[in-house]
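User: I'm new to structure prediction. If I give you an amino acid sequence, what do you actually give back? Let's try with this one:
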Amino acid sequence: MFARLKRQILALGSGRNVDFLAELALLLLGAFSGFLGALMGIGGGVIVVPILILFFMLDAHQAVGTSLVMIIFTALSSTWAYHRQKRIDWKIGVLAAVTTIPGASLGAYTTKFFASESLGIIFGVFLLLVAAMMIRRSFLTNVSSNNPATYNKHTSELLRRTWTRRIVDASGKIFEYDANIHSGLLLSFLGGFASGFLGIGGGLIVVPIFAIVIGLPMHLAVATSMVTMIFTSISGVSTHIMLGNVRIEYAVPLIIGITFGTQAGATAARRLRSKTLERIFAIAVLAIGIWLIISRL
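Assistant: Good question. You get back a string of structure tokens that encode the predicted 3D arrangement of the chain. For your 297 residues, that looks like this:
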């Protein structure tokens, strides 16, 4: 069975039709990336792009463009799940989209100036940097999902607060924090650029910005990033379609799998402590980054 799957993956890479076994592999990949994406507030592109490159032999540009199509549905499904939990700060999410949208378009256009091999290595290095930042943060701060005030105590020494926020989720849990929205909006442009350039939802940049710069508790940062990701991904996909970087035969089974994975991921995230969620995020990204760099050297 493994040998047959390998042959079908090779067939996909050569442009022939997708058969049932290969579609099943893509569907399972979509479910897993959707679960991980909803769990950590990312689009799942950090999982899908490397696998499309390494195992399905797609050109890096096509892997990036196809991943973004999938991420639109990841963001929509996850947003619905987190909306039911009432853990989305809608004002911050929509405002952040204002700067991520042009960033995504510019990032997608910029890919045309990079060779496929270079794009893969850049993606891997980017993941290592993000993972290092998140691991460092998780050990330096005492983030507690049970006491949002403790979270703000540690970050308030570093950040200037400009907007007092209060969110009550579906279970009655209260999140109170001061949002440094102005600096966060400027930096969100980078999240949009990363989305279009690397084929990710932008959550790898947006989640740390929401948590570290703006000051959202980690659970809210994860949930709110999904709202921003809807607009960011649509913007990036539009440019990639014009560049011919979208392979719809790969995108469809990925999207079907995502529909199921995101709901499970959002439920799991609700049960985890903030620090645990942050470390899972960092370790997963670190492993993928190392894997991708080694494979491209």
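You can read the tokens as a compact description of the fold. Here is one thing that stands out. The two ends are 30 Å apart (CA to CA).
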